[in-house]
Amino acid sequence: MTYCVGLLLDEGLVMLADTRTNAGFDNISCFSKLHTFHSPGERFIATMSAGNLAVSQAVINLIQDGIPDPETGKVETILSVPTMFGAAALISEAVRRVYRTHGEAMKQQDVSFDVSIMLGGQIAGRTLRLFHIYAAGNFIEATKDTPYLQIGEHKYGKPILDRAVTSETSLVEGMKLALISMDSTLRSNLSVGMPLDLLVYQIDSIDGVVQHRMEEGDSYFAMIRERWSKALEEAHRLIPPPDWLAP
Q1: Among the four residues 9, 19, 139, 170, which has the most C-beta atoms within 10 Å?
Q2: With bands split at pLDDT 50, 70 and 90, how would you rate the model's confidence at 221?
Q3: What are the residue boundaries of the structural domains of the chain, listed by start?
Q4: 69, pLDDT greater than 90
């Protein structure tokens, strides 16, 4: 399994993914689930994926190779679609094509067609956007009311995001909250694991992106884990006991 989280903030975009792929208790591998598509000065787009690795890799290859537009016949790629909505629609069509090609064979082998893809980015002169594409090919978009999206093992990292993330959250604070959310998931689910791939993008910069891989033992992530654990321990100690509890 995996855990990926994306934050759509007024200042920009934060995307974070683990790299563990689990095909059984004794078959654990490391694959990057964060992919970037950058045309300097023109667009910056990134995807993260969860679910069946073969399906997600097929989808990523399709959007790079190109898919004919059903109305015009023009082949569109992730680097040629004119809008981010068009990019989400392109990935949706790629998911449906992979299903048509492999879905029945996977079903016969009792393999679930399980894939979720998060898409974020900006085309120059247009709005920064963040989408979640489902296995059926439909998708939703992050908004100011719900400025973050998750795919994979999302339940452990969701509470901190619900309590602390708003669209006004700064990029730096958003990055820290994404890492705390990931730490909560790592502690509670063995199917999510290091290294971590982090992306921070400043709105309207197109080329202003920072990518960083956090390996096991990364000093900054270790500091986040230690300080968050201590802060939680201190917080619950400071909560007074209820009046109805006898001494």
Answers
A1: 9
A2: very high
A3: 3-237
A4: no
